[in-house]
């Protein structure tokens, strides 16, 4: 029996972050995986980030995690989403090279050393079969081949492998990912410990050969942020050189496509009853889209090349478990894909998960001290949600502590939602609407919110900390200039004229100029002493959001005071800002008071704020 300080099971995004966090905190870590060649693999889409997810990546980076830096080093296209909206809901999304990303992550795992120079992380290939428990506490992990790893802390990040079954038409194959086996013994071990388990479903799309696509018939989607521009990367660390660039493309289904799909529903495991686990409503299969949105004549698909040295293309938006012949037929009905060659057919996968309400905010099972769960085993979906949980679980498994509030981070919202509300019977995904403090929880200020906490834990190194201190000092120096008056003068007005800003007729402050919606940091930078654009952009955002944040705080205080107010016959369809999920759960439960509504799984604090605003307006 070999001894380790921490044992991490699973080397996906959650497992890598958990292992790195524990190792950086000086712990000797065993990272157990079924296949050592699959470390850090991008199981589904070749992308990192997105709405709310991009903020999770920046928060992971700000705390000292790895995902942001690895994504930046392997980015082949970068886009800013929601650019027509406010900064609080704008998001970053990077297309990454599907081969380079896991290779870079594996490099990170190998690079961490203990104080004596030995590698901090030992990669152990094998199947985790049993959690070892003595007198109610974890003592280690047993492998399927008889080996035993002794440890007072075990972190399970098993992804879709627990009891995994892949479905494609009538085909049913044990496994958590194409070409890889499932973990059945570990599911039985967890059940024997009295852990409440459930069943969920997810899926993936076909991959097609790039050279078989008629790209001239598709709509190009180039990146909208050039390398080196502000907001063109995730990490707050030094910029890195990207390996290259690609273009993505948009295609559309047609009525013919939908007819083909409908004709195959009697062979889809989603509709034959072969799949019992519930899938994510926010990322439906192409079969679900055609059935649920029957009035739509087309659906958008995203063709994303998986890397610079592969001919594989990911067909985003076409997740399916239809039989192979129907996948060929519906793909060939799409303009540009008439002759496409399918390299990997889509499939659905069912898997076991543990009810996350059994966990504390440290992601440790309350009934089994020393056993931590992170990622899809907790009922979540997405690389970013998994990595965030892995970071938190790794910190606590190493004996440190970091509890983030809902007002501090999207990670805090994620963990609090899981352990207090659960997943509501379907895979959990992070959305901006889940965060009642989202005006404050922006991508741009993730370092100011969280880097001091990462430093206190021990994950932020000296170089990153020195860079952060210098950046915040520049912000403070510029902030001190905000309320200094600018007087009308020939020199000042000449400078403003050169910036296409109207001349001053009376004394104003730089704060007043920055607050104007038509002006930004680049316009007024020359009016500051020793301006730094990155720091000045932070000052500008703070100024522009100050009034919104104040009003947001007043609304939250109002909502908290209305907990006992009766909802009466309130029509939830008339409440602006409520998600479809929240409306469905409220209609089904019909809570009597606002406080009761707030305790419903799936009804976010942001939804409660929206209802409170309607109640206040109607009083």
Walk me through the structure.
This protein is an alpha+beta fold. It folds into four domains: 307 residues, FAD/NAD(P)-binding domain (3-Layer(bba) Sandwich), CATH 3.50.50; 142 residues, Beta Barrel (Elongation Factor Tu (Ef-tu), domain 3); 88 residues, tRNA uridine 5-carboxymethylaminomethyl modification enzyme MnmG/GidA (Arc Repressor Mutant, subunit A), CATH 1.10.10.1800; 56 residues, DNA polymerase, domain 1 (Orthogonal Bundle). The chain is 34% helix and 17% strand. The strands form six sheets. The chain has a six-stranded antiparallel sheet, with no helix packed on it. A hairpin with a 6-residue loop joins strand 18 and strand 19. The N and C termini lie far apart (68 Å). The relative contact order is 0.13. The mean pLDDT is 91.
Helix-strand layout with pairing:
Blueprint: E1 2-3, E2 6-9, H1 13-24, E3 29-33, E4 47-49, H2 53-63, H3 67-73, E5 75-81, E6 91-96, H4 100-111, E7 121-125, E8 128-134, E9 137-143, E10 148-150, E11 154-156, E12 165-168, E13 171-174, H5 185-192, E14 197-204, E15 207-209, E16 219-221, E17 248-252, H6 255-263, H7 269-272, H8 286-292, E18 300-305, E19 312-316, H9 324-332, E20 342-344, E21 347-354, E22 371-373, H10 383-397, H11 410-421, H12 446-457, H13 462-479, E23 485-486, H14 490-498, E24 508-509, H15 510-515, H16 521-524, H17 533-561, H18 580-589, H19 594-598, H20 605-617
Parallel strand pairs: 1-10, 2-3, 2-11, 3-7, 11-22
Antiparallel strand pairs: 4-6, 5-6, 8-9, 9-10, 12-13, 12-21, 14-21, 15-19, 15-20, 16-17, 17-18, 18-19, 23-24
